[in-house]
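Need the bound structure for nicotinamide-adenine-dinucleotide, inputs here:
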Amino acid sequence: MTPKLFIDGTWQAAARGGTIDVVDPATERVFRTCSAGTADDVDRAVTAAKRAGQGPWGRTTGRERAVVLCAIADAIEREKQALAELEVRDNGKPLAEALGDISDAAYCFNLYAAYAEELDARQGEAIAVPDDRFKTTVKYVPAGVAGLIVPWNYPLLMAAWKVAPALAAGCTLVLKPSEFTPLTALELARICEEAAVPPGVVNVVTGYGNDAGARLAAHPDVRKLAFTGSVPTGIAVATAAARDIKSVSLELGGKSPIVVFDDADLEQVVEWVMFGIFWNQGQVCSATSRLIVERGIAGRLIERLVEEARKITIGNGMDEGVLLGPLVSRSQYDKVLGYIEIGKQEARLASGGRRPPGFDAGYFLEPTIFTGVPPDARIWREEIFGPVLCVAEFGTEEEALTLANGSEFGLAAAVMTRDLERAARVADRFEAGVVWINCSQPNFLEPPWGGMKKSGVGRELGTWGLMNFLEPKQITNYLSPAPWGWYLKG
Ligand code: NAD
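Answer from helper R.:
Posting the output first, comments after.
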């Protein structure tokens, strides 16, 4: 049976009855269908969310919301195996990675439970003002109905990054997952239902971006939009937000550099560079897809990377020991293959670049390395979002920084060197929201996450993520019994 939409605490059929085929990227076979919600369904969901926000949920304390968030976290942790397996079939990623994602999602709900409790202590905090006849305090009120639009690369985790802080803040929400990976968002809806989240507080509408997504972005009763996805869609969402002056946060694409100096530990570099580009089949917004390597170490490093890339076990994410699963969809596969053809004209293909032998079905691709990539090449400038590493060499630190920062994106950047003073200097000059020293991609949920330049607007995670869903309200109180005496002199 086609799963329905979760609206106002009930499972409702999509108004127009459309469906989406959910394809297993390892087999290219449809293994589920789900509802294609449209603008009418989004309207019902937003109405329910608005009503729920005006009801008791809007008056809950952070502590009360923390109880709900912890219940969601517990359920995710309890159902970890089943959720991870669903994610593998939906997205293609190896099971070990999916299990990590689900644990992180549970952790995210627990973390925002703690922040929700801390918020109670900050309500009414005094702000020092330079006139002691006045007392000024700040209260943090929920931003209202939140529209949450997420991509397919970390389906449940990206949803958790938004649903958890929105609930912690006291918002009500409508979540629209990617049409390519809608299933774990529906499981999250069921978990919220079982955790006694009041009707209308969490609504999940599966559907296509240009229909359900566009309506959610444009709906006048949505007061806060949190979007993760590509730059073109980010522009459409920000444009829709501008029409109603909605608050908006955007987590967009990237083309992140990893700069390797001669003095770095070669084997450490090999591991972090490979993890930085082949993890999740390279479908990671912060993937360090541009390797910028000092000339002295370049030859040896490329040789080792090619050697290790050829050893990577490719296969169905459900199989033991697989490190590289299929790409998520036919369209993503064709897009990445298209970039590989372009790359062959622009640089030297050192490894990979084709469907691995023996794989007749599934969106499988060998880990791919291009060397000698010039800075004006399309494969150097544009986000490929696949297991494709582009390598360029440098002679001086200044040259390395020019290459690293020469991008319209600014999500993440990494530097590998034993010289920690140099590492700190380079880290300071990277134009990126996230910087890694002697590593690539480790991500904790407490620090801020987000990008500069075209990689986005605002920050998620940590307390920054919570503030996205709150409106600080200033309350200034005149305490003196004497007339103020500035405007009317008496
Ligand atoms: P996408 O922009 O195609 O889709 C993202 C979401 O937006 C989907 O739910 C989609 O249905 C919806 N959508 C599409 N058109 C819409 C419209 N007109 N109005 C409203 N919603 C619409 O992106 P994707 O292909 O799903 O994801 C890959 C992109 O996401 C990459 O560029 C990647 O870098 C980025 N990403 C960024 C981060 C980050 O934290 N910065 C994290 C993960 C992914």
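Comments: The longest strand covers residues 134-142. The CA atoms of residues 410 and 467 lie 22 Å apart.
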